[in-house]
Amino acid sequence: MADRQRRSLRLRTRVTLFFSLTALVASLALAVVTYGVARNFLVDQRSKVIEAQAISNATLVRTTLLGPPVPQDSDIGDLVLSLKRSGEGFAFLDVENAGEFGDARFQRSSYPPQLMNVVAQGGGATQRFSVDGEPYMAVGIDIPAAHAQYYEAVPLSDTDNALRTISNALGIGALVTTIFAGALGWSTSRRLLRPISRVATAAGEIASGGLDTRMAPEADPDLARLVKSFNDMADAVQTRFEREARFASDVSHELRSPITALTAAVEVLDGRRVDLPERSQQALDVVVGQVRRFDQMVMDLLELSRIDAGSTELLREEVDIGELVSRIAQRYGFGDTPIEIDPKVPRTVRVDKLRFERILANLLDNAREHAGGPSRVKVEPHGRHGIALSVDDAGPGVARGERARIFERFARGSAARHRVGTGLGLALVAEHAQAHGGEAWVEDRPGGGARFKVSFAEVA
Asked: For residue 367, what is the enclosing H or E element?
């Protein structure tokens, strides 16, 4: 089914083809009818003219044969030749007891036998035939008073040429009409689909975070209904999203006070752990670990809620990338981790220091929590003017089916399912990477383990 959807034509193409095929069928039907009418008319008119001329010529021959003075054979031959001397065909006369008269190029054998049989039986007839590929119309008239039969053969090439010209003109007209209809269909579909394109553009902007995007009003009543429905839907989505984001922010903010107090109380107890029995110390370790995890989760939720609300801006500033990476690693207790800066990376880059620190710190913490610690940090070029930050580890790696999902909120890989963590660290990495115009992903590290990478666009 997916293959059929990929193979299906675009709506605009289908509309254009519909217009074109409709115009083609209509044009061809009109061309066939027009050609038939024109052909019948031209052939009928030409036949009438030929028959009338043949009758007139036969009358002249009859008068000559019957009238005084009695004509000689040479006179009859000259008369027959003169009847078609203009080049519009050939004449042939068969006189009983006198012989045959006509052009040497067009004798009895040139005429259709069926026609001559009808005339020989005392009738008159017409028939179309061809000689050497040229079309002719033959007329035969019996002259019983003179015991003769008169025949004429008139070429129809002019009529056929006229019909061929009409046919070509109709074909060209059908082609031009089809092309024009296709262009009209393309233009019409483009105009009709323009509101849908605007809907798609607006929906894309909303999907990318522009929740305040709305469509402009339309004068057309049908389109106005579409615009109103879309804008109402966008209002509902924005209201619900803002309400949920505000709820998460409010909950996280309200939890800060009790968490702070709880953390302080736990720290006091932890400071006097030597006064507690061994089992109480074990319970205290569990409480301290969970309180710190809870505190980190609340901090991460607050940060995500600020990102969702759009209250955090990207503040780029020029920094020494090697010094920044080293300082962050030292600050979070990873000073012994090897740091590699590719020589092609500019010494000074433009990034948001706070966001960059959160990305690197979360990647380092992730490696420590789930892979026994990072094995290398590397910065290398990415794209034309960007860089990529990677953190390697020697842990179990990430299954291919989980590589996209682990960057979702509260998502965890199967290898980290029973480990301590909030499930928000990598989600924050992806959010901050997107703010820099980049992305976050994970791949296999040569030799085993995982390599988490983050790209930063336009930093040079």
From this structure: helix 353-371
Q: Is 123 helix (H, G, I), strand (E, B) or coil?
A: coil
Whose tokens are 């003017």? That residue is: 385
CA separation for the pair 187, 192 (Å, rounded): 9
In order of 55, 328, 415, 446, the CA distances from 364 in angstroms are 112, 10, 17, 19
pTM for the whole thing?
A: 0.49
On the 0-12 / 13-18 / 19+ scale of CB atoms within 10 A, 349 is: buried
Provide DSSP, 287-318.
Answer: HHHHHHHHHHHHHHHHHHHHHHHT------EE
Asked whether the beta carbons of 199 and 215 are under 8 A apart, the reply is yes
Cβ neighbour number for residue 46 with a 10 Å cutoff: 16
Please calculate the CA angle 37-40-43 and round it to the nearest 5 degrees. Answer: 140
User: Phi, psi at residue 131, to the nearest 5°?
Assistant: -130, 115
Task: Please count the other Cβ atoms lying within 10 Å of the Cβ belonging to residue 153.
Answer: 26
pLDDT digit string (tens) for 55-99? 999 999 999 888 888 778 888 888 888 887 555 789 999 988 888
